[in-house]
Structure formats: C-alpha cells, structure tokens
Amino acid sequence: MHEQFSNALRAEVLTQALPYIKQYSGKTVVVKYGGNAMIDEKLKSQVMEDIVLLWLVGVRIVLVHGGGPEISDLMARLGKKPEFVDGLRVTDKETVDIVQMVLAGKVNKTLVNLLECNGGKAMGISGIDGRLIEAVAKDPKLGYVGKITNVNIAPINDLLEKGYIPVVSTVGCDAEGNSYNINGDTAAAFIAGALHAENMIMMTDIAGILRDRDNPETLIPQVTVDEAKELITQGVVSGGMIPKVDCCIEGIERGVKKVIIMDGRVPHAILMELLTDEGAGTMVVAGGEV
Predict the structure, then answer these.
(1) What is the pLDDT, as a whole number, of residue 239?
(2) For residue 277, is it within any domain?
(3) Is the pLDDT of residue 217 over 80?
C-alpha cells in the first residue's frame, strides 16, 4: 500500500512540475554555486543531481562556481595566511596561482566529474579559456583581485549548442597575460547578463533576503531592483549580504529576467524554485511584474 501511494505521489509531483518544465525547456539558467553551500559532500552530490535533472528536461544550465573555503584550506596547508579587505581576498602573485590551481583545477574538475557520474554531459572551463572573463586590477592594495572589463560569451554558447553543461571557474585574465581572482557572484551576474538568461540562481548559506536577519520567517519572497536598493539604504540588507544583493541587481540591469537568492544547503532548493508554485528564496525582478 505504501509503495502504491509513493508511486501515485511521484506521478502527481511530475504532473504538477510539467508546466514549469515547459516554461524552462530551451531557456538558459545560470546557477552560481560555491562557498559555504559547497562544503557538505552529500549535499554537493545532490545539487549536481538536480542540475542534471534540469539539463535532461531541456534547461540550458550554466554552472558558475567559487571555492573560497577550499582556497583558504590549501593556503593554510602551504603556510600562507589568508587576508581580507572589505570581504575581498588580498591576492598576491603566489595566492593567485593557488586560486587558479584550486578553482580551475580541483573544484572545477570535481564538479564536472560529479555531473558526469550523475548522467550529465559537462565541460569545465575557466574565465581564462577563450578570454571568457577579461579583467583589470580592482584596487592595487588587493593585488590580483580582478574587476571585470569584458565577457566573451562565445565559449559558453558553443558548449551549450553542443549540449554540454558548461562549468565555469571564476578566474580572469588581462591583455598582458596576468591572472585575476574574480568574485564568483559578480562573474555569474556578468555571464548571466551576457547570455540574457531567463534566470540566475545564487546559492548561498542563507534563506534569502530577510526583513529580520535573525528570523528566517521574515523572508521577503520578491523584490524589485528599486526595492532592493531601498533595503540596502535602510540597513535591512547589511554586511556580507550587500555585495550579494548588489550582484542580483547587476544581473537584472545586465539583462537577466529574474535573479533568485536562496539557501543552497536546503535539499533540492533549485528544483523547488524552478519546478513548483512555491519557489524558494527571494526573487529579484526589474519592475513590479514578473
């Protein structure tokens, strides 16, 4: 009896998901994944399963990832102390080499491998490949921390056309051949904008924008760009959330239809957002209507 109920429930869930599958099939969705949402190995594997499921039903998924904790971990093992100014990692020449090794090597290939093991077809590239992310130094005191000057979206489009899930590590380059550490949220916003993505999903370690940051029940389900800017002015959005919300705004202003900021630690959060009525997290949109 339990098995029958279970199968009936599965069928019901699939039926309810159908309008959303139709809505997103053939559309481009950029997922920013990294930081603390990435630490739990079981959860990481589940997120990759969800991405493969979306890819299998025809969503053109682009996965943009960071890997701050893994960078700090390798730096510690090499006896190098991480240093931050205004939330940005100070990056000397040795550190940018470590960033490139961890992001373009270890983290990128681990995610590609997980996607492939779950039945997906993935290809990993960095922002240096095809000069995808061009950058200059953001501030001399930060060293090789990059400010994006241009995004050459052709390598991602080529991979999407060939049916791959592009997995992008956020390292940039300049005309002189220097490498730069690029903020993952900013890179995702620029890439999603250049792709005119239907949706950009930012997986973080909080539920979304909260009216009271100590109370998850005060989640704000939807805001316009103007409302988001006002929440920053009022101090409702503060601290480390300011750059994240700024990146949501950046994405919308660059041509993304909607941006969702959500807790990447919640199982199947991406599927809840894209394939159910309820959604997950906070949606940022250009104007009053979606």
Answers:
(1) 79
(2) no
(3) yes
